[in-house]
Design brief:
Layout lengths: L2 H5 L1 E3 H8 L3 H9 L5 E4 L2 E5 H6 L39
Antiparallel strand pairs: 1-3, 2-3
Protein backbone atom coordinates (compact mmCIF):
# COMPACT_ATOMS: atom_id res chain seq x y z
CA UNK A 1 0.00 0.00 0.00
CA UNK A 2 1.53 3.36 -0.99
CA UNK A 3 2.34 5.83 1.78
CA UNK A 4 -0.33 8.36 0.79
CA UNK A 5 -3.00 5.65 1.12
CA UNK A 6 -1.73 4.73 4.59
CA UNK A 7 -1.99 8.36 5.64
CA UNK A 8 -5.67 8.32 4.63
CA UNK A 9 -6.44 5.52 7.13
CA UNK A 10 -7.88 6.44 10.54
CA UNK A 11 -9.31 4.40 13.39
CA UNK A 12 -13.05 4.06 13.79
CA UNK A 13 -12.81 6.10 17.02
CA UNK A 14 -11.05 8.91 15.12
CA UNK A 15 -13.75 8.69 12.44
CA UNK A 16 -16.40 9.13 15.15
CA UNK A 17 -14.63 12.24 16.48
CA UNK A 18 -14.26 13.60 12.94
CA UNK A 19 -18.02 13.26 12.29
CA UNK A 20 -19.05 14.20 15.87
CA UNK A 21 -20.95 10.94 16.31
CA UNK A 22 -20.59 7.95 18.60
CA UNK A 23 -18.23 5.08 17.87
CA UNK A 24 -21.31 2.85 17.68
CA UNK A 25 -22.62 4.98 14.80
CA UNK A 26 -19.39 4.37 12.86
CA UNK A 27 -19.46 0.66 13.73
CA UNK A 28 -23.04 0.55 12.40
CA UNK A 29 -22.02 2.18 9.11
CA UNK A 30 -19.24 -0.39 8.76
CA UNK A 31 -21.63 -3.26 9.59
CA UNK A 32 -24.12 -2.04 6.94
CA UNK A 33 -21.37 -1.70 4.35
CA UNK A 34 -21.59 2.10 4.11
CA UNK A 35 -17.90 2.45 5.07
CA UNK A 36 -15.19 0.02 4.01
CA UNK A 37 -12.68 -1.34 6.52
CA UNK A 38 -8.98 -2.01 6.05
CA UNK A 39 -7.53 -4.40 8.62
CA UNK A 40 -3.83 -4.08 9.41
CA UNK A 41 -2.27 -6.16 12.15
CA UNK A 42 -5.66 -7.02 13.61
CA UNK A 43 -6.74 -3.38 13.91
CA UNK A 44 -9.52 -1.99 11.74
CA UNK A 45 -9.21 1.33 9.93
CA UNK A 46 -11.50 3.35 7.66
CA UNK A 47 -10.52 5.83 4.98
CA UNK A 48 -10.69 9.47 6.09
CA UNK A 49 -11.91 10.53 2.63
CA UNK A 50 -14.82 8.06 2.81
CA UNK A 51 -15.77 9.32 6.28
CA UNK A 52 -15.60 12.96 5.18
CA UNK A 53 -17.57 12.32 1.99
CA UNK A 54 -20.28 10.14 3.56
CA UNK A 55 -23.75 11.67 3.39
CA UNK A 56 -26.41 10.10 5.61
CA UNK A 57 -29.56 8.81 4.03
CA UNK A 58 -32.90 10.27 4.98
CA UNK A 59 -34.45 7.82 7.40
CA UNK A 60 -37.81 7.29 8.96
CA UNK A 61 -41.26 6.68 7.62
CA UNK A 62 -42.21 8.42 4.36
CA UNK A 63 -44.60 11.33 4.68
CA UNK A 64 -48.22 10.57 3.88
CA UNK A 65 -49.78 12.25 0.90
CA UNK A 66 -52.37 15.00 1.50
CA UNK A 67 -55.93 13.82 1.95
CA UNK A 68 -55.09 10.50 3.56
CA UNK A 69 -56.55 9.74 6.96
CA UNK A 70 -54.31 9.33 9.96
CA UNK A 71 -54.27 5.91 11.52
CA UNK A 72 -55.08 5.14 15.15
CA UNK A 73 -52.22 5.74 17.56
CA UNK A 74 -52.80 2.54 19.48
CA UNK A 75 -53.08 4.44 22.77
CA UNK A 76 -55.16 2.62 25.36
CA UNK A 77 -57.68 4.69 27.27
CA UNK A 78 -59.33 3.81 30.55
CA UNK A 79 -63.12 3.88 30.71
CA UNK A 80 -63.03 7.24 32.53
CA UNK A 81 -61.10 8.84 29.64
CA UNK A 82 -57.77 9.13 31.50
CA UNK A 83 -54.77 7.67 29.70
CA UNK A 84 -53.08 4.84 31.55
CA UNK A 85 -50.13 4.62 29.21
CA UNK A 86 -46.85 5.04 31.03
CA UNK A 87 -48.43 5.22 34.47
CA UNK A 88 -47.85 2.80 37.26
CA UNK A 89 -50.17 2.52 40.20
CA UNK A 90 -52.83 4.90 38.94
CA UNK A 91 -53.44 8.54 39.78
CA UNK A 92 -51.41 10.30 42.49
Amino acid sequence: MPTNELEDLITQAAAARLRSVSREAIYGLVARGKLRVVEIGGQKFVRRTEVENYTPEIGGRPKSSPGTEKRATGRIRATNGVSTRGRKGGKK
